Amino acid sequence: MPDTYDYDVLVIGAGPGGYVAAIRAAQLGLKTACAESRETLGGTCLNVGCIPSKAMLHASEYFDAAANGTMAKMGIVVEPKLDLETMHAQRREAVTQLTGGIEFLFKKNKVDWKKGLATFVNPHTVTVGGETVTAKNVIIATGSSVTPLKGVEVDNAKQVVVDSTGALELASVPKRMVVIGGGVIGLELGSVWRRLGAEVTVVEFLDQLLPGMDMDVRKEAAKIFKKQGMKLMLSTKVTGCNVKGKSASLTVEPAAGGEAQTLEADCVLVSIGRRPNTDGLGLDKIGLELNQRGQIETDHDFRTKVDGVWAIGDVIPGPMLAHKAEDEGIACAENIAGQTGIVNHAVIPGVVYTWPEIAGVGLTEEQAKEQGEVKIGKFPMLANSRAKTNHEPDGFVKVIADAATDRVLGVWCIASVAGTMIAEAAQAMEFGATSEDIAYTCHAHPTHSEAIKEAAMAVQGKPIHI
Ligand code: FAD
Ligand code: NAD
Prior knowledge:
- This protein is α/β, with parallel strands linked by helices.
- It has three domains: 7-146 and 275-336, FAD/NAD(P)-binding domain (3-Layer(bba) Sandwich), CATH 3.50.50.60; 161-272, FAD/NAD(P)-binding domain, CATH 3.50.50; 350-459, 2-Layer Sandwich (Enolase-like, domain 1).
- The chain is 32% helix and 24% strand.
- The protein is built from 14 helices and 22 strands.
- Strands 1, 2, 3, 4, 5, 6 and 17 form a seven-stranded mixed sheet that branches.
- It is globular, with a radius of gyration of 23 Å.
- The structure holds flavin-adenine dinucleotide (FAD) and nicotinamide-adenine-dinucleotide.
- Flavin-adenine dinucleotide binds at residues 12-18, 35-38, 43-45, 49-50, 53, 117-118, 141-144, 164, 185, 277, 280-281, 313-314, 320-323, 325, 353.
């Protein structure tokens, strides 16, 4: 290995993990480059994930509020007319501005963008875009892509069987949409097209939606989505797909086996999960093996088994979330610079940006009970003055605390602004708060966040407004 390198740090992948790691490394005085094979920076999140999906969710939420009578309840009577092209244009504009923003931040922080697909030659040498680059440290931040479903071939160009990227770009509202997989992507993008007029059927293999979330939340979410008009086929598997022209016939049957039935659809969204991106990286050249789930394993500092090679984000174990990748990027760069970078993986909030939003942090009730005795406080949004006034009656907040110490172990919310509310819970847990700490913290009135305070008071059996 050479004594001198072109860079102190080379990051492979410019998603939220990689671009944040690169910027932090440069801020810490390390000479840094970032390889990215896409035309724009920002990875899945900015180009085809978090940002464009939220642009469509936000816009379709307004359309739905006008169409479903929520606005009329407040004295605003409108008959919405959909201009889908403008809706798409504002989505694309958000993506262009934000990805351009990362390019600006790279220039500002003197991070060199190496355009192309990076492949290892050895642990300190990578080829990218016809160039050979050496670095003392290489961070793998290659992210993830859609998990394919055997027998249901995605062709985003045809717009009949699509993945999340295709579902963001539909040129017209499908009459009948079948979503395969009742997870985060299926429910978010299924919500977008339902709000805009599609009849949406969600086919989920398990007996509930949203695996990984608290069971109360999963059951309540199913009730809410059904009430909104989504058809849910739980414990059901897709066994075949036949595309003819502009439509598809799906064969489905009970997950445990049984009588098959056919579903006709104008659009099928395959959203059964994502898998780590490692193809073409040349990991065999550096002797780095993957675990059984195709992920790269690291230690607590984000070091892989190969000296000088680090990994972060969707390509390593843990929830596939942008903010988890970002925090790991910061911690990894700090560790490379000799500082102590830590991510508390026990406190990573997760949010589903449907209406209402669904959010959680820490342990589910089921997980907490496996560890010992717990106390639970629940408060319905119907009893929260702000939610009630805003015609947002659905949902609840649930605080799970250790029965002996009162330390908060988990918080779960379904509320219009649950994604914003959960930040308070994450911060409280990061500081080791008890439910009493939250209950005795003054919360502004009238806010949805008061429901968190009330749920914390309910842990001691003393909520005020119920
Ligand atoms: P990525 O963002 O996947 O970036 C990796 C980058 O590496 C890619 O740009 C890829 O082109 C590049 N790359 C890969 N291999 C190479 C190579 N060999 N050489 C050069 N470049 C390479 N998360 C949230 O937290 N909130 C959300 O609201 C949310 N919404 C989502 C909506 C959708 C539709 C999808 C698909 C995902 C969403 N996610 C969301 C998940 C989020 O996008 C990911 O968790 C996040 O992008 C992971 O960041 P990353 O940096 O690990 O990888
Ligand atoms: P997911 O893991 O959230 O959900 C996939 C769903 O598909 C699960 O419910 C699973 O049981 C089901 N499933 C799997 N195989 C199936 C089959 N053959 N037939 C029917 N159902 C099947 O995955 P996703 O929704 O594709 O999202 C991928 C990742 O992207 C997630 O890990 C998520 O964290 C991330 N993401 C996050 C957000 C957010 O934070 N708001 C938004 C979108 C995506």
